[in-house]
Amino acid sequence: MGASDGARQGDDGMGASAVDTVASGTSIYDSLGVRTFINAAGSYTRLGGSRMPRVVIDAMRDAALHFVEIDELQVRVGTRIAALTHNEACYVSCGAAASLFVATAACMAGTNPALARQLPDPRGMPTRVVTYRAHRNPYDYAVRTLPVELVEIGFPNEVIPAAEWELPHALTEGTAAVLYTVGGWTSPGALPLEQVIEMAHRAGVPVIVDAAAQLPPRENLWRFTGMGADLVIFSGGKDLCGPQSSGLILGRRDLIEACALVGAPHHGIGRPLKVGKEELVGLCAAVEWYMGRDEDARTRWAEQLVAQLAMRLSGPEIQVERRFPNEAGQLVARAHVRFTDPDGAARGARAVALLQAGQPSIEVGASEVAGGFYVNPMTVEQDEVDVLLDRVCAVAREVCA
Ligand SMILES: *Cc1c(COP(=O)(O)O)cnc(C)c1O
After folding, report:
1. Ligand 1 atom with minimal separation from the 181 CA
2. Shared-domain flag, residues 248 and 308
3. 58 against 315, higher pLDDT
């Protein structure tokens, strides 16, 4: 067990500690000429998502050395993850976006293999997917790729959120599902999830919840299904620290069976969304690891990092503010840094560029304020903290000089 193994248990109060960030080296990226960096932005697909803990890497390596029947593995992994997360059933897909596609197709075809095979021809299947305009986002391409009609209700920023008659009215014959998105960035204008579930179920319509980034807290893995949501989706490659191309669908047994029918290795509309044995096993190991993580220690660790940064950086020209929860709605503090003088926007932009170009390279999060940026501890390891704080302070001094 190396230092990070202890950290992974949270017994020394460290944060993510998913990897041996020093010892693991970056040789493959060096040889490709690809820049690596300290990620103080957060868990973003375009920045590599997250880093896998040793236990996950080991599980994937082991998985890669044997032949297995994918159907059998999918069922066993699903059973294990469902038990770990207090759910009825689970299907592993190759990302949360892929999960949105598979879950929607499952709600259309159900457990009828002939209908599953018939897609993309939707005859005889429900094709309406009802969603709030306030929840529209670029991930809903994954749903709209199917032969569905996206039925939008409500309006973003409606003062009185979407009138209560609107959803029942939209749940007509031929409605496959309600798509409900949970995130820190959704607009007002949607009814609360509990109410949506109740209305949908009264009409016999399942509810798919896109909760891709709603971790931590880990309770969310069973909170939304506990409310009655039929299928709930999480990304495996964000805070779960599973393989970057993995995703979880949790929920109702019959609908999970329907997911398996439309998904790979079965031929049909879901076949391009292949999940490898390595991803299946890797996500299983990641969920197990995640369930054992000390979330309180991690929360405190993030608070400390934010407080340290504020203490070292705040001054007449620099404002550092704690922001909580973060932009995804995750319960981890982050710091917003802003240069307050009239030249602030240009200084901030220069600071971000200098951090990127520096040694080591550092990525910070984009801000809604010109010249501002975020330092997000979620994807930072303890052994990166000193250099991160030193660099941010040095760069701030440089652009203010
Ligand atoms: C990140 C995200 C997704 C996509 O997750 P992947 O695992 O990268 O496919 C979908 N929906 C929401 C709300 C997300 O935040």
Report:
1. 13
2. no
3. 58
Atom of ligand 1 nearest to the CA of 99: 9
Are 214 and 320 in the same domain? no
Cβ atoms of 259 and 350 within 8 Å: the answer is no
Q: For residue 325, say if its preceding peptide bond is cis, omega within 30 degrees of 0.
A: yes
As a whole number of angstroms, the distance between CA 242 and CA 18 comes to: 10
User: Does the beta carbon of 183 sit less than 6 angstroms from any atom of ligand 1?
Assistant: yes
292-317 mean pLDDT: 94
Ligand 1 within 6 A of 239 CB? Answer: no
Query: How far does the centroid of ligand 1 lie from the alpha carbon of residue 386, in Å?
Result: 31
Query: 319 and 282 in one domain?
Result: no
**245 CA distance to ligand 1 middle (Å):** 11
The residue nearest atom 11 of ligand 1, judged by CA position, is 212
Specify burial of residue 198 (Cβ count, 10 A radius: 0-12, 13-18, 19+): middle
Quick check: is 43 in a domain?
no
Residue after which a domain boundary falls, among 291, 317, 351: 291
Arithmetic mean of pLDDT over the chain: 92
Domain-embedded: residue 193 = yes
pTM for the predicted model, two decimal places: 0.93
**Nearest-angstrom CA–CA distance, 253 and 250:** 9
Instruction: Judge if the beta carbon of residue 176 lies within 6 A of ligand 1.
Output: no
Q: Are 90 and 218 within one domain?
A: yes
